[in-house]
Amino acid sequence: MDWIDSLNNLEVNGNEIMSFFEYYELFKKSPEKELRPTSAYLQDMVNYFGRDDHKHLNVFSHDDQDAPAVFGQYKIEEKIIEQLRNFAEEGFNNKFILLIGPNGSSKSSLVKRLMKGAEDYSKTDEGALYTFSWIFPINTVIKGNLGLNQASTTSDLSSYAQLEDKDISAILTSELKDHPLLLIPKEVRKDLIHSAFNENPEKLEEIEKSYLVRGDLSKRNRMIYDALLKNYKGKHEEVLKHIRVERYTISRRYSRSAVTIEPQLHVDAKMQQITMDQRLASLPPSLQSLNLFQMSGETIHANRGILEYSDLLKRPLDTFKYLLMTMESGSINLGGILTELDIFFIGTSNEVHLTAFKQHPDFNSFKGRFTFIRVPYLLDYKSEMKIYQKQINSIKDRTHFEPGALDAIAKFAVMTRIRSCMTKHYEDTKKLSAIVTTLNPLEKAGLYSEDRIIPGRLDVEQAQILKHNIERIESEFEFDNLYEGKFGISPRDIKNIIYRLADMNKAITFIQVLDYFKRIINKKSEYDFLNMSAHGDYHNPPKFIELINEAALDDFDKKLRESLGLVDDRSYEDYLKRYIENINAMIKGEKIKNVVTSKYEDADEYFIKEFENNINLKEDAANFRSHLISKLGAWYLDNKGEEVDYTKIFPEVVDRLKESFRKEQEKVIHKIAKNLVFFEAEMSGKEVKGHIPLKEDIKKEIKVVIDNLQSSYGYSQNGSFELIKYLIKERY
To answer: Are residues 647 and 576 in contact, defined by beta-carbon separation less than 8 angstroms?
Structure first.
């Protein structure tokens, strides 16, 4: 039973209570920490979790069973946090954040991660949150009846906060989780806060706008406070004896400052009378005479936290019309009682319901109080792959995803979501227009990926123009009704496809993936994106499959040739270094020292031309040489003192060099092709009629290739066999 001790030693175990006077001392030590409305608290929470090496917010990338990580929605995350900053400047959460996007675009996941971050943060010392309850002792603690005998004398207790249950007759909680500082009368509270921030006027200005300065207790707490104050003849310290300050943590599971309202039909907040409840008959007479009400409902539970309206626009308008006043005033009207709220309101909806909502006559009233944030499907296939990696890891015991399979899935998904660039959007730059209008869907998907892949077919100048205008291309349809990511295949559909592929195959290569896509692209009744009119290669799924197949073959072809071991990577380094030295000398009109003869000689023009022939140079040679020297010079400036690695500085040239060895390697590949079927049969123990066993040197050669594919790239043996056979069939 050691686990009991570990639970008892937890820093936040639900037992952290104190008197109001103890809490006031805590406030004086760290006023900035205690004076945080929800918007400021959530900002601090986001800052607490920090950012990763790419400056992306960690709170959204952490993974949890109840709140999985969100990938690739970095711009949306920043927009949400920007709204928190705006609320802090306004003094209250004056806008409803509505996330709009297609089904499955991670709208709800973003909110879940925000709630989970707040939940985890509330368990830390930095994120501690406090509210209070009213404690009423029994007569053995206070002589006489409170509120009945005005001459009653109290014990020497300075507070009833630490009393045990046996000494307590009644407890009234604060259903809105009122902040303990609201117990201090408004005028005095304002002076105390001013004195606490004398040396920080900027922070004071921000805090002064919040309800913690100008606000007051909820109706019920105010009634109790005033009744007790009247009974104690205006002695506030006697009233505050009844206060027990309690730490609480945010919890979505238990609807504590993190609540999700589903689109069913019901009211989100209500009141019920509690003074008729026989269980509270032990309240002091001064309180029994009051008409006390208890508030409940999702909106009440969410106070001092996050309230999510899932699929908001599926609800009839009257069920959320009260949000107009709530956003404007920061309060809710319950039975004629204005109740102040401190809630970060956020909701989700899809484009179809938003379009219908815009036709409603009341839409303009809502538009001013709503902030609409589009959440499209991902357009970065590398981030798309991360969505499914956890799923693939969970099924690896029954199927093996070969390298390139998930890559093909993610590329197809992104290609269904993008549009072709339009000439009219680039009329100011003819060169850029000529480049972007020739991009095929796969090239554009590569451009949108985190690696910013520039098509290799472009010359140096075109590549530079494209590289410097990627953000412009990404924003081309940002404000268009048919924006990129509004349509296309959903990640939910992709997850189902992955499970189906796993059920059908022990090993999944890009071949099985593309074969499956060939079948589903005929099911136009199941997928809306299949009903879009083709625009060249765009909105053209058969073309997507063709492009992905060619790219996947290119990729595996390179890996196979690398695995053949015919070319040592160091030869590329030496070959490239020699070329750079020669063109540098040629451009500068200098001589090069011959390492054999130690004599200084002119640049070797024959060698330069041979090198450029080997890389199949199509662009202007002078421009190409000048670009390489400039790139090397820039590298020197950024990496002073480091050893030069030409293959890393010029990877695109190395790729061209490797391609030049293709013909030499083709001979070996044909040799492997001739014997692969027999080798596979011998490995599996099958007999092939009329087959003479392979010689040891041939088997060894093939085995080296298979082993290299496994150790260097992660292919399985069966996957390697299948892909080599497919490559030979398609290319050799």
So the answer is: yes
- Return the bridge partners of 142, or none: 154
Helix ranges restricted to H, 350-484: 351-358, 363-367, 381-394, 405-415, 430-436, 441-448, 460-467, 470-474
Query: What share of residues in the chain are helix, strand, coil (percent, to 5)?
Result: 50, 10, 35
CA separation for the pair 501, 495 (Å, rounded): 10
How many angstroms separate the CA atoms of 726 and 729, rounded?
Answer: 5
| Distance (Å, whole) CA 617 – CA 614 | 8
Alpha-carbon distances of 131 from 12, 18, 161, 427, 561, rounded to whole Å: 15, 11, 13, 60, 67
Q: What is the mean pLDDT of the chain?
A: 87
What burial class does residue 173 get, using C-beta atoms within 10 Å of its C-beta: 0-12 exposed, 13-18 middle, 19+ buried? Answer: middle
What residues have CB less than 8 Å from 680, skipping those under 6 apart?
Answer: 721
CA dist list (Å): 199 to 88, 350, 609: 20, 47, 72
pLDDT in tens, 14-45: 568 999 999 999 999 999 999 999 999 999 99
Neighbour-count burial of 571, counting CB atoms closer than 10 A to its CB (0-12 exposed, 13-18 middle, 19+ buried): exposed
SS (H, E, C) 262-324: CCCCCCCCEEEECCCCHHHCCCCHHHHCCCCEEEECHHHHCCCEEEEECCHHHCCHHHCCCHH
The answer to whether 102 and 351 are in contact (CB under 8 A) is: yes
Those residues with Cβ within 8 angstroms of residue 625's Cβ, 6 or more apart along the chain or in another chain: 583, 586, 587
Q: What is the largest CA-CA distance in the chain?
A: 116
Q: Residue 582 in contact with residue 625, Cβ under 8 Å?
A: no
Q: What token pair was written down for 339?
A: 């109740």
Pairing of strands 168-173, 507-508: unpaired
* CA Rg value for the chain: 35
Pairing of strands 305-309, 258-261: parallel
Beta partners for residue 576, in sequence order: none
Dihedral sign (CA 19, 24, 25, 30): positive
Burial of 16 from C-beta contacts in 10 A (0-12 / 13-18 / 19+)? middle
**What are 222-281's pLDDT values in tens digits?**
999 999 999 999 999 999 999 999 999 999 999 999 999 988 655 566 666 565 555 566
Taking only the tens place, the pLDDT of each residue in 527-540 is: 999 999 999 999 99
For residue 1, the tally of other CB atoms under 10 A from its CB is 4
pLDDT digits (tens, 9 = 90+) for 266-325: 556 666 656 555 556 667 777 877 777 777 788 889 999 999 999 999 888 878 888 888
Is residue 128 within 8 Å of residue 156, measured between CB atoms? no
Q: In whole angstroms, what is the distance from residue 72 CA to residue 482 CA?
A: 20
